[in-house]
Design goal:
alpha+beta; seven-stranded antiparallel sheet; three-stranded mixed sheet; 15 strands
Length: 401
């Protein structure tokens, strides 16, 4: 804005206001007194331009953008640590807090079981960021553990994330003006769920059990007759549960309203692990207190959390190669090109009703691989047409030949 207001321009304006009968040449008393002042004024203009640039979300640097975001209740997402599945032999020998190592990365045994699987335990990477998602295989205990035969990392449960990029933060800042985040509306669920570490994108589905008719839940006379005949054979929790269900059904208290389905993918844009799904479920609406408002969801909202389903795409095509190239030395490059396209689609999954895997896009990506001359007769899962995925499906490369 003030690019033209330079030291020279300021000095000339100042000297122009001095009568010509006075000596204004360089080295004169007037020139020597005006020149330092012009320098200071130029510095003030530079500072003023900096203030104006930092005052707007469009142009603010990270430091001042964070201050701007605070005014909207938006905060940069910090780097998080990866949680992985560790398998130990014999099972349960390691103690919470014991540390293990693979290369330059250290891991801590948390002492939490992964589901009911024998030998599966949660292990947390000590270093925040994506580096915790990269290493698998044998771990070395950093201190002697008597009786331990092996320790191995097998799977990422909750991916580690890097600190949020400045431009991503800027985008969320502007989005805060477009979305009315309030009391369990769609924007509220998206914001709160995506802020949970390990979650990449989320789809919100209202009344996910709307395929059940409320009228079908009301017991008919034959049902009541059956229940009256068998209830004498029931006792304890079984009798109490059936009594509650029958009463609620008769009083028309069983409805399909107030249900919310959250479908998520992880921060690496892949299917969420069972551990991540359970973590989000507990944070949003704990299963033991469904609908009671003990999580992020409002009272009355019964929330179910699921992972998006990975749809394997099998690709068959006919490739013509340049001399010196062939399937043997280009297979990995071809698979990487297609996988990159599928990754782009997965990043768009939450904003689309259905993803479409297009043959034309696959052909284009394959043609861009150095050494490929021509692509023809491409088919997806045995058909020569574009493949439309389900609402909750994301594409992954199955086989390529």
């Amino acid at each position: 804005m003030y690019e033209e207001i330079t030291y020279e321009a300021i000095l000339q304006r100042m000297l122009g206001r001095v009568p010509d009968k006075l000596d204004k040449r360089e080295g004169s008393l007037i020139w020597d007194t005006h020149s330092p002042t012009a320098i200071e004024l130029q510095i003030l203009y530079i500072e003023l331009e900096t203030i104006l640039r930092e005052a707007y979300g469009d142009t603010a640097s990270r430091e001042f953008l964070i201050l701007r975001c605070r005014e909207r209740g938006v905060y940069p997402r910090e780097a998080t640590r990866a949680v992985l599945r560790g398998v130990f032999v014999p099972d349960g020998l390691a103690a919470a807090g014991q540390r293990f190592n693979i290369g330059d990365v250290n891991y801590v045994f948390t002492g939490k079981r992964v589901g009911d699987e024998k030998g599966g335990w949660e292990v947390e990477c000590e270093m925040p960021g994506k580096i915790g998602n990269q290493y698998f295989g044998r771990m070395i205990p950093m201190e002697y553990i008597k009786g331990l035969q092996s320790a191995e990392l097998t799977e990422v449960l909750v991916p580690g994330e890097e600190e949020e990029e400045t431009e991503d933060l800027r985008q969320r800042y502007f989005a805060s003006f477009d979305e009315n985040v309030f009391g369990g509306n769609r924007a509220d669920y998206l914001k709160r769920t995506n802020d949970i570490p390990g979650v990449g994108r989320t789809k919100v589905t209202r009344v996910w059990n709307a395929d059940i008719s409320p009228a079908d839940l009301i017991p008919k006379e034959t049902v009541e007759t059956w229940y009256n005949e068998v209830k004498g054979t029931l006792a304890g929790e079984v009798r109490q549960w059936l009594d509650s269900v029958l009463y609620a059904a008769k009083e028309k208290k069983l409805t399909t309203g107030g249900t919310v389905l959250l479908t998520i993918i992880n921060s690496e844009y892949g299917p969420a692990s069972d551990a991540l799904v359970q973590m989000v479920q507990t944070a949003v609406d704990p299963e033991g207190n469904a609908g009671e408002g003990y999580g992020l969801a409002p009272i009355g909202h019964v929330v179910r959390v699921e992972s998006a389903k990975a749809k394997e795409i099998f690709i068959q095509t006919n490739l013509t190669f340049e001399p010196g190239f062939g399937w043997g030395n280009l297979q990995s490059s071809l698979e990487e090109a297609v996988s990159a396209y599928f990754l782009e689609l997965r990043k768009e999954w939450a904003d689309a009703s259905h993803l479409i895997v297009r043959i034309s896009q696959i052909d284009t990506r394959l043609l861009n691989v150095p050494g490929v001359l021509d692509v023809r007769e491409t088919s997806l899962n045995g058909a020569g047409n574009n493949l439309e995925l389900g609402e909750y499906e994301t594409p992954v490369l199955g086989a390529f030949w």
